[in-house]
Write a structure and sequence with these properties.
With 250 residues, the chain is of the alpha/beta class. 42% of the residues lie in helices and 14% in strands. The protein has one domain: Spore Coat Polysaccharide Biosynthesis Protein SpsA, Chain A. The chain contains nine helices and seven strands.
Length: 250
């Protein structure tokens, strides 16, 4: 708890058996997390079995793989149903350190920001942590293009370490978003569309064999999806088109 607000960590999981327990233990070491919700997206390993044995953990298993975005939709729905006031997404692959949870929760719990991102770019941690150079270059290009098209100033849009207030999650039409990786990008675009301020904190990150990563083809699809999202955002703001992702604000 923080300021009498219930803190829930959600973990969208797929084949995370090797790193799940280590990630969970560091999450709980922070001493403020009330509940962990893990959604297993039809893993082929022991992810759900391991999660079921962890204290203060609610486990839900998709019978069929719904994709990264589809997994997150279930995560956020369950977190709201469980009464979460502050919801923090932590990938169970241990790529992002859970040690930032108190800082992120405090920024939201004190009413400073409704959304906080753990940025790999601030502080130069991306390359230090082992991010492939081609991914770093793609990240910088996409971020620049998105900032220009959406009129924002984020250091990156592609981190999977995110914290949200309950009020913000309830205001978003997440079911309209993709079930694939571009869900992350669409969600941030919706937050910017609604005029919310997004905070960022410097986040060390690690790249290793067990850390999840998408292949080159999926990365290209994701990158194109990000550019399309930003372009739709711009055209909707200019009132040239209408989009369910970016409804007209009343």
């Amino acid at each position: 708890m923080h300021n009498n607000k219930k803190i829930i960590v959600v973990m969208p999981a797929y084949n995370a058996a090797k790193t799940l327990k280590k990630t969970y233990e560091e999450v709980m070491e922070q001493g403020i997390v009330d509940l962990v919700i893990l959604v297993d997206d039809a893993s082929r390993d022991e992810t759900s079995a391991i999660a079921s044995g962890l204290p203060k953990t609610q486990v839900y298993v998709h019978e069929q793989n719904r994709g990264y975005g589809g997994n997150q939709k279930t995560c956020y729905r369950m977190a709201l149903e469980a009464g979460g006031d502050i919801v923090i997404m932590v990938h169970p692959d241990y790529q992002y350190t859970p040690k930032l949870i108190p800082a992120m929760a405090t920024m939201i719990g004190n009413g400073l920001y409704p959304c906080v991102l753990g940025s790999r770019i601030l502080g130069g941690y991306a390359l230090k942590g082992g991010m492939p150079v081609w991914k770093y270059i793609a990240n910088r290009f996409l971020t620049l293009a998105e900032n220009i098209l959406m009129g924002a100033k984020l250091s990156e849009y592609h981190t999977g370490y995110r914290a949200f207030s309950r009020e913000l999650l309830e205001s978003l039409s997440l079911e309209d978003n993709s079930d694939d990786y571009v869900f992350d990008n669409q969600m941030l675009a919706q937050i910017i569309w609604q005029g919310y301020t997004i905070a960022e904190v410097t986040c060390p990150t690690k790249y290793f064999t067990e850390a999840s990563s998408i292949n080159l083809w999926r990365s290209i699809r994701y990158g194109l999806g990000c550019l399309v999202t930003a372009l739709i955002f711009r055209l909707a703001r200019m009132k040239i088109i209408r989009s369910t992702l970016f409804p007209v604000r009343k």
